[in-house]
Write a structure and sequence with these properties.
Blueprint (H helix, E strand, L loop, with lengths): L55 H18 L4 H8 L9 H19 L6 H11 L2 H5 L5 H13 L2 H19 L20 H16 L2
Helix pairs in contact: 3-4, 3-6, 4-7, 6-8
Amino acid sequence: MKSAKVVPDIPPEKSPPICYNYPDGEQDDAGQEAKPNMAKQPDPGPAGKPGSGPDPESEKSLTEQMENEIRKQRKFSLAEAIGREAAGALSGASPVARTLQVRLEIEHILEVRLSDPYGSLTQTILAQLELDPLLLARYFDRPAGALAEYLTTVLGSESHFNDLVREADARWGRDYLERPFFENGENPPDPRDPYTRKSVRVLLEELRDSVLED
C-alpha cells in the first residue's frame, strides 16, 4: 500500500503594507492613531508675519530714490520754464494761470484791433506766442508789451515774417477746407489769397503802432 504524498504548506504571498497619510489626530480603519502628515509645509516666515516678503518701508524708500533721479534728468516743462522766469515777480499766483491770462488779454487785443475776418492770422500769431513762454513771462503785468515786442521782431525779420504769412495761409486752408495760396516771390499773389505778404505787413504795422501808443 502506497503512502499518501505529503505536500508541504506554502504560506500565502504577503502583499506590501498600504500606508495612508492621515491628517493629525485621525485614525485608520483599525482604530489606530494615524501618523501625522510629514509633508513639507511652506515656511510661514518670521513670527507674526504671514510670509517673508519685501519690507514696505524699503520699497517706499527705493521708489523715492527713483523719482528723485528722474526729476534730476528730465527737462523742464513749459510751466516750469515760465515759473522760473517769473520767480520773485509773483506771490501766491500760479505762473500757468497768469500765462493763460496774458494769452487771453492778447487775444482780446487782436480781436479788437486786428482786421482779420477769417481769424486764421490771429490764431497763427497766438500759436507763435505760445512757443515763447519766456516772452509772456516778462509781461505778466502788461500783456500788450509782449505783443508789441513780438510784432517788432516779426516785422524786423524777413524770414520770420514770411514764415508767419505762410503759416497763416496754411491755417486758413485747414480752417476752411480750401487750397492755400502760397506766395513764392516770383509770381504776383493770387487775388483770392486772404493773406498776401503785402496785406499782412500793413495789418501788422498798424497793429504794432496801435499797441505802442498804449
